[in-house]
């Protein structure tokens, strides 16, 4: 009775709301029990059990559904403990960019799914670089000018083979002394030429499996060439040489090298042989056909085909080596140009406002397209494939430079793309100095850059996930770096860009003429220019302002209906680009960094493309930089970028010129 008085009427326990509440509770309880219940750990079945199992027997629909639900909802488990991020190593970051290398780099569209870090990109593991060795005796008595010229030629050799995916290493007498057979060879009374050749083989045998080449042998093809692909695999079933190259290139395993040296030392031809190949038994080497992707600038070939360089070598060897260096560099540049007959594509999406953004890419493309400085302008590389190359004079254009909006996957063109951060693209394409959340949500399109450049190869009706996967393949697949270069809009072209192409790219007017100068001549040019005064340095430093400029109260500098002149628009684009560069490098929490994070979240695919391209380029530079520092310690620094050391190892004096 009191119950009825309190409520005024009998309570209806069968109301609709209570029914729905009970149903929802039952569904939630069943789902929680099904998904969050502990799963059993499957133990691998014995081999015989696996063989006796029925291969046609599949999983039931219920078990498959449960497994998929478990995998898909594991991240939503409220009882799951926190997981650690993959450890960050010192070699996984460089110049503000960080990454994590894993074979699953193409399994997910967004790196943070595996790295658990918004700032780290997921890159493919670095490919192993097989060793290619050359022998250079830095202890021989020569003039400083001649040794400097040889060092420049060695640098050209190292740069060319590094770009092809190898690890070029210069060996000397120190490596030969590490071979157990060194003492035995020194006691031999044989031809001096044979003993010199044996020193090279002893050094190779002490190092191990790889390629032994002369430093006048250069690749003249792209990375997908069959011979270069075979050499990069690092698996050599037998000692192999090539017809027409003599001893300019030999490949083999360490055991085969040791056996070849031993067979020569035990041979009856030891007293009369001039070199290892001539003295070793005939079945020691396998001879392959003449390659059309390698060029050996031997003295015989130079005398026959390049008389001008031969004459220079005869009259003054140091100057002749400089001419030879320029000739080889020009031939590699010509070989690269002939690989892309349709020219160079500099991608320019949103062409109305991205002229300054792609300016570094355009400058690089123009340098690549122009004919290189060549001591013999009418000459071609000494390979059958390039015997009728496209000839041109230095300073004239050999390739056409195009500026399409979309990327085309063509082997006939070389592509240079500039990947902008979403903030950079948003401010430039809309000429906005200030961005707010309301504009991002209501007016800003999602992933406009990636959609624009991939529209030609993927069409319109494709998700951003597929576009970003295709972009990553265009950046980091095995042979992709040989056909495209992806820069970032906020950084300059890498200083080691020559190592990515394999030849020296002229950087401006007058630069081509200095391509073959020796370090001594370069030093004279530097002294002639003179150092900057302290006052000038202070003035230059004072013009730099690292602080972020405060935006004006009115984001639109021009009233509606008034258009900017081309000069005013260009000036505004430059100012917006510089401001975007500073905002993107900020690490301290500010209003701009919070808006930057909002824009990144709105453009996940564009942000992923920018992070991936930046990290891939940074890792390439870091790999080469670390290797360069290590290799500069050997052979007196010959072939290194900083140049050969002119100081004597045993005396506190410099070499005589």
Automatic annotation (TrEMBL):
Swiss-Prot/TrEMBL keywords: Membrane, Transmembrane, Transmembrane helix
Transmembrane regions listed in the UniProt entry: 18-36
Renumbered residue ranges of the record's region Disordered: 501-574, 626-657
Highest taxon in the source lineage: Eukaryota
Regions of compositional bias (Basic and acidic residues) in chain numbering: 537-550, 557-574, 641-657
Protein's recorded name: Uncharacterized protein
Lineage, uppermost ranks: Eukaryota, Fungi, Dikarya, Ascomycota, Pezizomycotina
